[in-house]
Amino acid sequence: MSALHRVTQWNAFTRIWHMFDAKWQNPFHSAPLITKYLKGTYKPFYHPMSDCGDMVVVINSKEIALPGDEWRKRVYFHHTGYPGGASWTLAWELHNKDPTMILRKAVYSSMRGNLQRRHTMQRLLIYPDEKIPVEILENVTNQIRGSRKAPRTLISYGDESETFPRIAKFPEDYVLR
């Protein structure tokens, strides 16, 4: 094998570090996207028996967005393995305990049928905010775009909001609470 072919093969099988911003993203829509990079299915030489997946760093998992009443109605199951060790936790309670767990469970369940998913999940690094260790941030070379755009806040519009049509005219002594 020539040196050029060897370098080409090394470049093909190196692990690329990707970053994903989970702010305002639905974890159940983001999970298949993250899984694609963890397993390496986007690569042209992907094969289920080869381990060619990449590293994925997820930031802002504290600010994920669940649709509708999912925060109050979605329940997560956990069993300790001992008799009577079954427990069900609501999504908002689980998110308050560990802000990375909902996204971790969504990615884990989206890898259904993958026999190596426990090994593959070790390449997923999830942080609740934007504070990432410097040695990890140095390795990141690619960004994964989210499935939805983050909405703008009303304050970010500035003077542009004056051009919006008014629905109602409030009196001067009206106080917003």
Automatic annotation (TrEMBL):
Matching InterPro entries: Ribosomal_uL13, Ribosomal_uL13_bac-type, Ribosomal_uL13_sf
GO cellular component terms, semicolon-separated: mitochondrial large ribosomal subunit
Gene Ontology molecular function: any one: structural constituent of ribosome
Gene Ontology BP, a term: translation
Keywords, alphabetical: Ribonucleoprotein, Ribosomal protein
Family recorded in the similarity comment: Belongs to the universal ribosomal protein uL13 family.
PANTHER family to which the protein is assigned, alphabetical: LARGE RIBOSOMAL SUBUNIT PROTEIN UL13M, RIBOSOMAL PROTEIN L13
Stated name of the protein: Uncharacterized protein
Organism, as annotated: Rhodnius prolixus
Lineage: Eukaryota, Metazoa, Ecdysozoa, Arthropoda, Hexapoda
